[in-house]
Write a structure and sequence with these properties.
Number of strands: 18
Oligomer: single chain
Shape: elongated
Length: about 850
């Protein structure tokens, strides 16, 4: 409910005036009516009317008396009779015709009586006008008729007089009522006059109070103006200064008494702004556009009395007064603020330059560190393929582990730097979150087993397997959380739980462990950079302390949040909630991948053009490719690569980015522009640059993929099995490689100790034996459960990857893919080939032990 608007002074005066006018008008109306009634009651014709009516009966009696006398006296005077008849006749005629008696003639009773009397007179008139003899002869009849009409005449007179009396009484009553209304009106007028007098007294009190308020407000305004930190200058439309407060005196270094009445332009406007000021004042006086007045705060320059020009912040408003329009200017000296802003701009420019320099430094250092690291790890990989003693192999394994750890630290620092610089770009893809979790569980199972811990995962509620999200970031988040839980949990349990949140497209990931827990003080800093659960020199676990800091950044980048709950000595729970987009499962890929569009299917060894200016990196890549049976042609720069691509055909081009003469990006564009088969050859970048925007630019130049340095043998040879080149499913199995990777086994022994590795291998052998036994049961009913076959094969494939049983892993993946696609023929073929591969794998494991 809103309150009514207050009355204006004009309305407050108008309402009493209207009420007083109405009361005065009522008194005037009722007074005039009383005067009229009194005059009417006192009118002479009213008295004459009553007398005339009374005389009607008297004159009839005189006529009747004369008639009776003439009848009784033979010699009576008939002239007297005729005179009395004429008098009565005239009276009745007046009653019939006079306008004064018209209201009486409207009365039915009077009109009837008057008619009978008039009829009598009309009947007697011939006898009255006849001779004396005839009149005397008719006197008896006339007397009889007169006697008969006498009661009518009396009734006529009495009823008329009664009516007049009633009219007079009604008029008196009306006059009385009018007097009452007049009295009430006079009383109302008196009350209105009293109310008006009270209201006028109230208005006078208000005026006195308001005048006091105005005086007080004026005093307060003077105090405000005198104590204001902003300068206040009031001028009229001619620019003449009317007010100049103390702050203005201090700002402009001149007393108010010296500037009051002077032109504003002469006091505060710098010489180079006077022309513009004069034009603006002229425009204001002529009603033109107001550019500064009412436009808020603007920055201008002003002049002190000393002639110094300085920056001010100015706001001007206009107001109407009795003397005309005035302008009120509020201004402040912002010299210090402008100087501070200039310093901030300079600091910002330095910071931006530093950030750019840091980014360039990181990109350069990434390249410079990864390039020798690529040579180091690559040569270690090549060295492992030579004949080595057990001690040499152990030393090489240690070196490779250290190199990979160094690479992990570099990647972590670069990821944090990219995030903090706002250059961490997301790449959402359609993915199976369950498969990703299973892969991570498989990857960390060996470490968990070494700590005598159980590692497991599950869905809480309905599963949402297929989603669209950034797979790499999710993998980093899960790997960091699960890896931390495994490191700090001994003889316990680690559980990963996925759940669909109640709100739309929400995914919750909970990683629980029964490890050492986190203290309340550590929880406050657990997501900070370089913070570890045990920061002492004697700590039992390694790490830079960047894992959880990276996890926090990745979760935030994905639009989610992460919390932690922990009790020291009992364990910890990390809860991640992420918004994800539910997706449909992708269609199964056919035997030919999308990359094949650039060339025709090729079997056997590939012809590879290796473009690399660094001789060590070139040697590493060449030896890896040749060891896999591929033919390698080398180019030292991009120009040589373009010439070779123009002259011959290649199945794959490995292109370094930073090279002399012509870089890899320019060479790629030149090759794509060639007319011939080279324009369709797959080109994969070899780069130490991990910046996402740079890698995106490589793809825009026409490259088909990216291999990041340091180059690994698995990643390089994976190009021939991942779809970058045409390949048959069983092609790699034809290559002469060991059933079990000695590198994986050595890494496992280094991580878990030889005894721990033997425990893991034993568990793995038992797992595969049980799987083969289940798949080979008589009746074959178990082969109808395709989802379970796929799940079991996927689980065992992860274990095979941990052990390094690569051929067995591929066979298990073939079983999984056949079960998922529903191809029972392919499934039967893959299952039938599993025992032979398993025998070879067991033999290799026994030899390596």
């Amino acid at each position: 409910m809103t309150g009514s608007a207050p009355m204006t002074p004009r309305v407050r005066i108008l309402i009493p005036a209207v009420l007083f006018s109405l009361a005065f008008a009522a008194v005037a109306v009722f007074g005039s009516r009383i005067l009229r009634d009194v005059q009417d009651l006192n009118a002479a014709h009213k008295d004459n009317l009553q007398w005339s009516l009374s005389q009607t009966d008297v004159e009839f009696l005189e006529f009747y008396t004369a008639l009776v006398a003439a009848k009784g006296d033979v010699d009576g005077d008939l002239n007297t009779l005729r005179r009395e008849f004429d008098i009565f006749y005239s009276r009745i005629r007046i009653l019939n015709e006079a306008e004064l008696y018209a209201p009486l003639r409207e009365l039915p009773r009077l009109r009837t009586a008057l008619g009978r009397v008039d009829g009598f007179l009309q009947g007697a008139l011939p006898a009255i006008d006849a001779s004396n003899a005839e009149l005397r002869q008719n006197l008896p009849d006339l007397a009889e008729q007169a006697a008969g009409i006498r009661p009518v005449v009396r009734d006529l007179s009495i009823s008329a007089l009664g009516h007049l009396v009633a009219l007079t009484d009604a008029r008196r009553e009306q006059t009385g009522r009018t007097l009452v209304w007049l009295g009430l009106s006079v009383g109302g007028l008196i009350v209105a006059l009293l109310a008006l007098a009270g209201y006028l007294n109230h208005l006078n009190s208000q005026n006195v109070r308001r005048r006091a308020e105005v005086v007080e407000a004026s005093r307060r305004m003077n105090v405000v103006m005198g104590t204001s930190l902003d300068g206040v200058i009031i001028s009229d439309t001619t620019g003449r200064i009317l007010e100049f407060n103390a702050a203005a005196e201090q700002i402009f270094a001149i007393p108010a008494q010296e500037v009051i009445g002077r032109d504003l332009a002469d006091v505060i406007v710098p010489d180079h702004h006077k022309a513009a000021h004069a034009a603006g004042m002229a425009r204001l006086r002529n009603g033109g556009t107001r550019r500064v007045v009412g436009s808020g705060r603007v920055r201008l320059e002003a002049k002190r009395a000393t002639g110094e020009v300085f920056p001010v912040e100015l706001a001007i408003q206009s107001a109407e007064t009795a003397q005309g329009e005035i302008f009120v200017a509020f201004l402040r000296d912002i010299s210090a603020q402008v100087a501070a802003e200039e310093e901030l701009v300079s600091a910002r420019d330095l910071a931006l330059a530093g950030e750019k320099a840091k980014t360039n430094f990181l990109a350069t250092m990434s390249h410079e560190i990864r390039t020798p690291l690529n040579g180091l790890l690559g040569n270690l990989t090549l060295l492992q393929d030579t004949r080595l003693t057990a001690r040499q192999r152990r030393y090489i394994g240690n070196m490779e582990t250290s190199g990979k750890l160094l690479l992990s630290h570099i990647n972590g620092v670069l990821d944090i730097t990219k995030y903090d610089a706002g250059r961490l770009h997301l790449r959402p893809v359609v993915m199976n979150i369950s498969d990703l979790v299973q892969d991570i569980i498989d990857n960390q199972s060996a470490s968990a087993a070494a700590n005598q811990s159980v590692l497991e995962w599950q869905w809480d509620g309905p599963a949402k397997n297929w989603i669209r999200a950034d797979k790499d970031r999710l993998q980093d988040i899960l790997m960091n959380l699960v890896g931390n839980a495994v490191k700090f949990t001994h003889n316990g349990r680690i559980r990963v739980t996925l759940a669909c949140l109640g709100r739309e497209n929400g995914l919750q990931i909970v990683v629980e462990d029964t490890g050492i827990g986190i203290t309340p003080d550590q929880i406050r800093h657990v997501f900070e950079d370089f913070v570890t659960g045990d920061s002492s020199y004697a700590r039992n676990v390694g790490g830079t302390g960047l894992g959880l800091a990276l996890t926090k950044r990745f979760v935030t980048a994905l639009g989610g949040h992460i919390d932690v709950e922990s009790t020291p000595g009992q364990g910890s729970s990390f809860i991640v909630e992420l918004p994800v987009e539910e997706a449909e499962p992708p269609q199964p890929a056919g035997p030919i991948h999308a990359r094949q569009a650039r060339g025709n299917p090729i079997t056997g060894p590939r012809k590879v053009l290796l473009v690399e200016d660094n001789p060590i990196n070139r040697d590493v890549a060449r030896e890896m490719l040749r060891a896999a049976g591929h033919y390698v042609v080398e180019a030292h720069n991009g120009r040589e690569a373009v010439d070779l691509a123009r002259a011959g055909r290649f199945d794959l081009i490995l292109m370094d980015i930073s090279m002399p003469v012509m870089d890899g990006r320019s060479a790629t564009r030149a090759i794509r522009a060639l007319n011939g088969p080279a324009s369709l050859t797959p080109i994969v970048a070899l780069t130490a640059n991990v910046m996402a925007e740079e890698q995106a630019a490589f793809l825009e130049d026409g490259m088909d993929g990216i291999l990041t340095k340091p180059l690994s043998k698995e990643a390089l040879l994976g190009l021939f099995s991942s779809g970058a080149l045409p390949k048959q499913v069983d092609e790699i199995c034809d290559q002469k490689e060991p059933a079990v990777s000695d590198e994986h086994l050595q890494s496992l022994k280094q991580a878990l100790s030889p005894d721990g590795a033997r425990v893991i291998v034993a568990r793995f052998c038992k797992e595969i034996d049980e799987l083969i036994g289940w798949l080979g049961q008589e009746g074959g009913e178990q082969r109808q459960d395709l989802p379970r076959i796929a799940a079991e094969a996927h689980k065992s494939a992860g274990s095979a990857a941990t052990i390094g049983a690569l051929c067995l892993r591929r066979q298990l993946i073939a079983i999984e893919e056949a079960a998922k696609s529903g191809s029972r023929a392919d499934l039967a073929l893959a299952i039938d080939g599993l025992p032979a591969i398993w025998l070879a794998t067991q033999s290799a494991l026994k030899s390596a032990a």
